[in-house]
Every structure is written in structure tokens, then in C-alpha cells.
Please model this.
Amino acid sequence: MIKSVFHVWIVAVATLAAHLLIVPPSVLGKEPIASEAIVKASDASHPRIAAGLKKLREKVNKLGDVKYGGAVQKFADLIESDGVVRMYVNEMIADAAVRDKSIDSPEVMLKALHLIIQEAPSFAEGDYFPMSTLFVYMMDTPAGRAAFAYPKINDALRAILKQWCAFLDSRESLSVINKKDGWLSPKAFQVNALDDCIIPNPSDPHGGFLSFNDFFHRKIKPELRPIAAPDDPKIIISANDGAVYAVASDVKLIDAFWIKNQKYSLYDMLDGSPFSDRFVGGHVIQSFLSGNDYHRYHAPIDGTVKDVRIVDGLMFSELDLGVFDTTSGTLSQGYQASVNTRGLLFIESEDPKIGLVVMIPIGITEVSSVSFSVKKGDKLKKGQEVGYFSYGGSSMCLVFQPGAIKRFNVTPSADVEAGDGPKIRVNQELAIAN
Model:
């Protein structure tokens, strides 16, 4: 069965690639030739995105000639040397230019990437996710959907994001963590509810944080996230702050995760884990973390870590849902649970009714970095911190065995957009086990 589903997927990708190959690729640095992809007039522009792209192009125009170096230079070399990569990049830029012509060539895109990864996101400028802004129109094109799922392009972008993550982990990134107009300003305190967070050294100009990511990983005051029923193993708690995106039951081992209603496919979500069969017929609950949510995650149950690892996957891939996703892919979270960079943490409860539970923190766009602070064999207590997201959009899936859940205490609304579902907070009661 696995082979047959994969065969259908491979044929679909090959058909799309063959269609795109009809259009001859332009060369690096020259204006791309637009394909026949038509963008609906109603989707032609978006004020926030347009403003962000305008600022980015203005910065590029001031840059002049530049040597990229590092991962951006390797991406430039890949575009120059690989015809398929060059084709995808040129075509997605051409199709995106129907909406906005700010990024009108591979050279401009590369210069924008060069600039983005040398800076921390500025609270003062208001474009908190500049790489998402750079790619949002490209993602919503036929060529872009092929490009961002193409391994060579995805690997090149992963290297760029890792280089940026290293900068955001450094003290050089602290300039935007300031009290005047930065992430510690009065306005930022209000927008990000920083009064709820632990500021290591309030008298320090940077609040005692060591880097931009150190600020992004900030901890919340524990009294604001009390653990629900700490001595009752039947009460399962939320692993994270966020908003409920979806709740699914009777999930299958293999399903068509790439279709519009984004079914959950356990074999793919769990990266072929030998534990996958144990969850067939069970439940998945998925939630979205916005940029200003608490970005550490906690164990939803007591138990023993049976396996923990990171799966390198896609970062900027989204489905064609028939609408323009201005949020750069957060409407495709169900699909991303099977393909994106994500972590897998398997926790075995002593209660056989609960059995094995999987936490799947998922990176969406930007740095797409997930980290764990526990290892195989560790004994976990419900509510114990087990990891964190670095800067960027994030999602979380909890996967339960059949018969484990008596009822969930939260339910998403029909056709809910990311961030608009019922709010949840880490350590609150999420479900009751049988």
C-alpha cells in the first residue's frame, strides 16, 4: 500500500515538473520570463506584504555589488550550475511578479537573502518575518510549490537558515533587544505580553538576554502556567501555548496529506518509525504558535522517553488551497506535519490505556529550528519542559493511540484560520484519558 501511494505522489510531481519544463529557463541575473500561471485580481496585492517587499527592495538597491559568501553564495552557485534549480527559481519569481515586482530576478532575491541573514528581525520596522515576506508570493505559484519541495533548493535554504540561526544565537543580534524601540520597548511589552515573562536582568540594556534567540526562547513565569491535576495521570495537559488548529480521529497509517483537507498520514508524520502502527485509528490534535506565543514546550503526560530525534524536512512549502495564504503557509499546517522540519518525542505512559504519546513540534518558514532538552530513557513528569522552538513560525501535533482519549476539552471551529482557533496554554487540561 505504501508503494502505491508513493507511486501516485511521484507521478503527480513528475507531471508538474514536465509541465514546467515546457518553459525555457532564464539565466541567473536576467529578468525571468513569466509562465502562463494566472493570479486572481482579488489576490493581486496585500498592503502589509507590499510594504515589506518595498522596504526590502530599497535595502537591496542601496547594497550595490556584493560578495555573498557562505550559504547564500552556495545557493547562487547552485542556481548558476543546475538547470532545473535555475528553471524553478526563475519561474517562481516571474509568477510572483504578477502580484509584486519588488523581487524581479534571482540576483535581487539572493541580495535580499544576504541582507536578511545579517540582521535580527526589527520590532521597530514591524516586519517580524522578513524571509516569509520575501517568499510569500513565490510560495503561492505552481513553480514555487515545486521549487520549495525540490530537495536541492530545500537543502540550500536550510543551510542559509542555519547560518542565520547562528547569527541570531550570537551577541551581535542583541541590537534589536533594546528598550527604546526594540523588543523591550513599552509597545513590545504590550504586544508580546512581556510582563508575563521572566526578564533575566531588567536593569540591563538588553534585559539580561544573551542574543535574539535567547529572547525568543524566553521563559514564562511558572505561576502563570500551573500544571493541571499534577497527580492525576488521566488528565492530559497542553504541551504548548497557541491556538487549536485541528482535531482528527481514526487517523490512518497512510493517507493523502497533500490534498485540500490535509489528512494526517502517520507513517509520514512519524518518519517511518516502527511505532507508527500503534497509532492507527487514534487521534491527532494540532495547534499553532504565533510569533508572540511562549515558544517552549512541555510533556503532556508522565512517562518514559522511548525515542527522540529531529527530522530535517521542508520549510517554505505550502499547498494550493485555492486562496492566497498571506501568512506564508500557516493554512497548510496539516500537510506540513508530514513534510516539514520537525521533532519526534515518543513518551510511554505507565497507564496502558494511554500507552504511547508523540509530541511533534513543527517548524514553519524562517529558521524552522526545533530543539529537545531530553534524551531516550529519561523519566518525564507531566508539565516538565522538554524543548523549545527557535525564531520562526511553529506548530505542534500530539498523537494518541486508539482508545487513549475519552474526550478533548477543546474543539476547533470549522474552516478556522491559523491563530483563530480556541486558545490553549501550556500545562492546562487538554484532554481526559480513558
In short: The mean pLDDT is 89. DSSP finds twelve helices and 14 strands in the chain. The chain has three domains: 19-168, 175-210, 222-433.
